[in-house]
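Hi Prof. W.,

I finally got the PAS fold-containing protein prediction working! I wasn't sure whether to trim anything, so I left the full sequence exactly as given:
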Amino acid sequence: MTVPIHLNTHILNYLSVGSIWQNILFYTSIFGLIYINIFLTRRKKTYKIQPALGLPGEKDGAMLPAADSNEPKTNADLNNEIEVLKNELLTLGEELELSYMKSDRLNDQLSEILDSLELTIEYDHTLWDWSLDFSSRVVTLSEYGLRLRGFPANAKPVFDEAVTVIDVRYRQAVIDAIEKSFKTGAEFSMTYVINPLDGSQPKEIKSAGRVQYNEHGAPIRLFGTFALTYTPPLVKK
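And this is what came out:
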């Protein structure tokens, strides 16, 4: 974002509360509250409220003149309108809180994407590789693949151990799909959620692979790649 020459960048940095979207949400909220405050102040001035002592309208509903209406309004009407405005302010506050929560979640996802991009540049295409040996049932994952699932560095988990990180809602379906690939040669493709062993946030992963055979047509391994899909709704189901 370009800054005009006549603006002092130190002032902009001082006024900034974070990223561009956080600045937009923050200052939009501030201006919105200022507008509501002005609206309430002007609305209050349009009515001539009787003094607190000797208010006949408190008991008998005496009518008060309203500047913006041809019909007079009672104290009860004014109290109802104030209550409505309070509820609107509470609703606005809840919406702002939800906006901040969504902003934080988007920031977390962006951070993960940038981390993945940095690792991809460093480790090239092997970052997303995985394989399952048919005989030993050992799962081989890249350094990032191990870290993503909460396994220690250089770990060689066996298949039964590796599938424990898969959410129970998808675990059996993944196991069945892998066994089917070994038996029939069908390509493996699944989208599922993992719960890392280190207790970090659940992640949605899409894995795909195919079977490698030896010269006699016997399966050697199932190998392929995985990717993060960044779709929180599936993770929360």
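Residues 122-236 form a domain with the Beta-Lactamase fold (CATH 3.30.450.20). Does that look reasonable to you?

Thanks,
D.
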